[in-house]
Design a protein that fits this description.
The protein is mainly α and 153 residues long. It has a domain of 63 residues. Helix 2 packs parallel to helix 3 and helix 3 packs across helix 4. The termini are far apart.
């Protein structure tokens, strides 16, 4: 019996060797009480896969991105997140809302560029126009709500 890598190579066997193996398998099957020892995992014939339907898709051959390309994409994504249009709009809106909370005029204390952005951005304009002091709670400087007032006696 071949072991190791030699078991992968189909060794030539004499007909009497094959006949002896079959007799031994039949005897083992008889002792175990099974009809046959022909198991799928124990077959000795070579299994050949059907390669007629095998096709390669074009995405299989796409080039892998280099480390520099991946770093550039990450830089662009992070830059857009931190300094892109959405980040600028969010920053201006935050300043407008802070002014509203403190009771100031919407654009008070803001730079000229921030005012221009706020005036030309429709979403910020709507929030300035629809401003209601009841919607935004003012910033209260004092003890937090969860702190109890301790009276000194």
């Amino acid at each position: 019996m071949n072991k190791g890598i030699r078991s992968l190579i189909g060794a030539d066997k004499f007909p009497d060797e094959i006949q002896e193996e079959q007799k031994a398998k039949a005897e083992i099957a008889r002792r175990l009480g099974v009809p046959s020892l022909d198991l799928q995992a124990a077959r000795t014939e070579e299994v050949k896969p059907d390669l007629t339907n095998l096709t390669f898709k074009p995405d299989f051959f796409t080039n892998v991105k280099s480390k520099k390309q991946l770093e550039d994409e990450k830089f662009k994504r992070d830059f857009e997140r931190d300094y892109g249009d959405a980040a600028i709009k969010k920053d201006v809106l935050k300043k407008v809302n802070a002014n509203k909370r403190t009771g100031k005029v919407a654009y008070e204390g803001m730079s000229t560029s921030d005012v221009i952005i706020a005036e030309h951005e429709p979403s910020i304009q709507q929030q300035v126009i629809n401003y209601s002091p009841n919607k935004i709670k003012p910033i209260v400087k004092g003890p937090a709500k969860n702190q109890k007032k301790i009276l000194e006696v």
